[in-house]
Each structure stands twice: as structure tokens, then as C-alpha cells.
Amino acid sequence: MTITTRTKWSLRTIALLYLLLLLLLPVVVVFLKTFEHGWSVAWGYMTTPAAISALWLSLLMAVIAVPLNTIFGVGAALLLARRRGRATALLDALVDLPFLVSPIVIGLALTLVYGIHGWFGTFFSDHGVRIIYAVPGMVLATVFVSLPFVVREVTPVLREVGDEQEQAAATLGASSWQTFWRITLPSIRWGVAYGVILSTARALGEIGAVLVVSSLVAGQTLTLPLLVYSRNDQDFGTGATTSAYAAATELAVISLVVLLVMTVLSPRRQGTK
Amino acid sequence: MLYLSVIVLIPLAAVAVKALAQSPSAFWQSVTNATVLRALAITLVASLLVAFIGGVMGTIVAWVLVRDEFPGKRIVNALIDLPFALPTIVAGLTLLALYGPDSPFGIHIAYTRGVVVVALLFVTLPFVVRSVQPVLLELDTEVEEAAASLGASNWITFRRVILPALRPAILSGAALSFARSVGEIGSLVLILGKVQIASIVIFADIESDAPRAAASLSLVLIVLSLLVLVAIRRLGGRVGEAG
Predict the structure, then answer these.
(1) CB-based contact (8 Å) between A265 and chain B?
(2) Rounded to whole angstroms, how far apart are CA atoms B158 and B91?
(3) Are the beta carbons of B98 and A104 separated by less than 8 Å?
(4) Which of B14, B61, B146, B236 is deepest in the core (most CB within 10 A)?
């Protein structure tokens, strides 16, 4: 197909303009808004006790949810890629549910099971453990929403790699544990790494599901995204304040790092596919 | 499987049980009252619009990223994933800054349906682009050259040769965008104002301690998600790197 210079330029202009308006401009505005009253003001908002505790809580979410989902994800991917059958097909379909169900619905679902009046609620309240409107519930919500990433990244890689090498290792007398550590894991490592990055991004940035199960108390159950939400909510109508933008900038910086890692990992992951 | 049950399946089952543990007429009432119907209509129309615009623009962006060469292309390519990396609440806040009460451009569409569509376009941008890109890369240009040498115009070549090859990828990307739009909340929660979308109605029901009503509407959304899941499977796509 011979494309005239004019068509080429107009397509390029349309695409780049669309991306500029939709992606770049908004992000630049957050940074500008954050520092419009100077660095020290912004830094002050980022280092209030509430902000620091929110940062730690967000990191805690990721530190718990990501390893759990990585272990589950690699296991489930092995099942999906290596076994056939009804159970596998069912698992294949169900794994995607957290991506498709609205986060608010996820929050509601957790409340109905683990809340005070929920199915297991009495059991937990009898033992003095509070799940919903407390940190454990928020962890559950984060695990729920970030569950499919590793499975979905690793399964295609496993299918692509095939199992000849694993069989060879087994014939040579390797135990299944040895085979996994020496053969399987090295061949899927970039897929796992990419899945981990995506899960981390989601765990740090999740708001919908966590919003429902958090009590929104500063210093206790506010993650960084919830801090942005509550700081903006405090003066609704006057437009978001610098304090909200400061918290948003923290998140934006984290996500730029995530994006950078994704870009570095992406070709490697493609290479193993 | 146990892990999946405890975290995902039991809670979702609880929603279904809660919704269905009332008389059919009560259930029907709670999902067909005026507020709910209006919220569902807004959600569905906005999501369809986003799937359509996203499908068209996403294909153009993917095309430019694959077939065009220009300085800085790699950076642009990396930026596509930004909506997956950026927490959605930050996206919402930026839109509030751009289009809110003190908008630098004097565009005041915050708290309207228009801004909902813009927010959804932002968070769903990678779906279509990332699903069309690999297909376009694999596509053999020889077929296009053959079509051109047989006298087909660019437009005909695009419509008869390229588009049929891309269609499954575009559709599955658009279906993902649609599914994500129906459930999206993070990027919208700050800019909705009084616009009621389905997720917000559920949230309000939870807050006002009406779990039955919340569960009923949730069940409708879950069924809708399952339908989309089936549709995506049929199109042969994968839910993949959704965010």
C-alpha cells in the first residue's frame, strides 16, 4: 500500500495529538499543581504523619498481595498450561473475574462474607478480629483485584516454552522440585517479573474495592489513593487542593518508575514468548 | 483452587445469594427503579461510546506506532502503558484540574457525563492499542502490495485486506474497554459530581446500609461482566494485561 505523505502526516498528527491531550497533558498538570505554591509547601504535605502512614500502608498492601498472587499465579499457570480437563477450563474462566467485576462489587462481596453480619463475620468478631473497615479487609480487597496478573503473564510463556526440557530433566533423574527451580522457573522469569510489576502497580493504586472496606481514618486505614480521595473530599467544590495534588504526585512518581521497569522488561518478555 | 475460592468465589457467591434471598418481585423492583435504570443507562451508553471511540482511535494509534517512523517513537510507545501504571485516582484528579472549577482552559465539563467519557478513554487506552499492535506487526505487507498492484486504492486495500485481519483484535480490545468502563470507579469518583453511574449507586447503597439493593444491582453487573467474558472468549482474545 502506498501511503501519500499527506495521509501519513495526518495520521501521525491525529495519533500524537490524541495521546498528548489524553495522556501527557493531565500528568503534567498534576506536577504543576503540586508545586504551584513552591517545593517546601508540597514537601510539607507529603511528610505529614497521615501521608507517611498512608505511604507505608500502600506499600504494606503490595508487600502482602504481590507475593501471595505470585505463588498462586505461577501454580495456576502451570495447571493451565500443562493440564487439560474440565477443572482447568473452569479455572481458566474464573481467573479473569477480578478484572471484569467492578471494584465496588468486589468490596461489597467481601463485606457480605467477612463483615460483622457476613457469613464468616461472627466467627471473626468472636475472636476479636476485625476484617472489614480495617486493614485485613483492605489486604483481601487488594489481593482480589491484583490476582490475575501473574497467571495471565506466565501462562502463554509456559505454553510457548513447551515441556520437552522438563521431561528431559525428569528422565535424567531430577525431582519435580529440582526441575521446577532449574528448568521451569528460569524460562518463565521475565513473564513472572512482568506480572509482578503489573500486580504491584495495581496493588499500590487500587481505590474502588479498598474504598468500600476501609474506615477512612487518617493514620490507620488510609492508603495513598484513599488519601488523595479524602483530601480532595474535605473541600469539595473549591477544586482539589495542593495537599491532594501532593499525594497524587507521590503516586505518579511511583507509577513512572513502574512504567520505566515495564519498558525495560517488555522486550525481554517478548523475547521469551 | 482453595485460594481462589476464599478470595474470589465465596465473596461473589455471597453477593448472588444476598440478591436472590429476596422475593423475585422485590429483586425486580430494586433493579428497575428509576435511579437504577438511569444509572445503568448512563453507564452502558458511556461504555459503548468509549468502546467505539477507543476502538477507532486505538487502531489509528497502533497503526502509527507500527507503520510510521518518527523520532521519539519508543517513548510514545512506552507512554501507552501509562494508564495501567498510573493509579486511577490520580487520573481522576488530573481531569478535575483540567476541566474542574479552576480549569486553565476555561473548559468546565467536570461533574458532567462528558468528562466521564474522557476519564474512561484514558483508563482504557492501552486495551485496543496493545491488542491491535502485535497483529499489525505480524501482518504481511505483501498482500497489501498485491492488492495495490491489482489497482486497489488505499481505502479499498484498508477495508478489504487490512481491516478483516485486524477486526478480531479491535473487537476484543473494545470489548475489554467496555467491560472495564462498566466497572470503573477510581478515575471517576472525584469528577462525577451528581452524575450517577451504576458503581456509585451501589456504593451509595452500601453506605446507607441497604446491602440488598446493592447486591441486586451488583448481580446485574456481574452477569453483564460474564456475558462480556464469554464474548471475548468467542472473539479469541484474552483478558491479559488488564489493569
Answers:
(1) no
(2) 34
(3) no
(4) B61
